[in-house]
Amino acid sequence: MNLNILFGICLIALGAFASGSFAIPFVKVKKWQWESYWLIFSLAAYIVFPLLSCLIFSPEYLQVFKAIPSKTLLWVFFLGAVYGIGNLSFGLSLRYLGLSLGYALSLGLMLAIGTLVPPLIDGRLSSMFNTSGGNQLITGVIVACAGIGLVGYTGYLKDKYISETSTESIREFHYSKGVLAALLVGVSGSAMSLAFEQGIPISDMAVEKGTSPFFSTNPVLLTMLSGTFITTIIWCLAQGYKNNSLRDYFKAENHTILFFNYLFCFMAGFLWFVQLFLYGMGKSRMGEYTFIAWGILMALTIAFATIWGIIQKEWRGASVKMYILLALSLIIIVVSSFLIGMSASA
Q1: Which domain holds residue 221?
Q2: Model pTM above 0.70
Q3: Residue 338: phi, psi to the nearest 5?
């Protein structure tokens, strides 16, 4: 395999670890409604850290925006807003399914859809069927779908056979609601993959203006995630008004709890943004096979999140059969990421 591509995969793997870990700080948030901590997390992940990243690594970003056609910027912004719907649904899937199942079902669907949609739209997919690399890519996606199906079946068994007391580590475990949320994530969440592909002219312009190719996706992230934040703030404030939880942002039992709630939400936001920061760096090493980076990120994120879910005892009380099925589905999904990755050099 090309060493440049291998280095890119390693960076994406580090991003996947951050992505699979970002929800851990939420466990420490006390007495806030879901929409409250999700909004503060979103402020950090979608606005604060992307802006800081541009200021530090892409200080020419305003010049880049002026030089890019407004149609391109609006398209990437719109795709970010669509992704916002998916990310809200992703938050709900974690709420109802926990880390292991929530990540596996949601991101597994994003892997399959997000890997195939960009080359389908720009015409690369049809020509890929005539190459060994293209066939290997399709095989990787099919294998990923098999892993997704198996983890979904494992979740069904968990819902059917595990008692309520064994899911107390997941405060609101609800299989059917979680699966519906995951399906919505798969459809709308893959808009992020498309936004990265459609944002390539922005990245190219950033390089022309003096940004290192390594950090050229930073202006794309700022544009896309601004759209994501608009969707998120509208929904979270509406839910806050409905649930009478808007006071969460200003009140707590004491100032210490309030401070740490904000701190843990910002920690989650930092980890979430780091995944995309490293993903962008890794993607810049993929050459014409930029779209395979998405599948690798999703598959490895699922792997790390599943491990975290086991550590947090989400599967306490599960039978040996369930653990075997979970491990098998995890192996299948990880193998699919390697197939997708190796398709770049086939």
Answers
A1: 3-342
A2: yes
A3: -70, -40
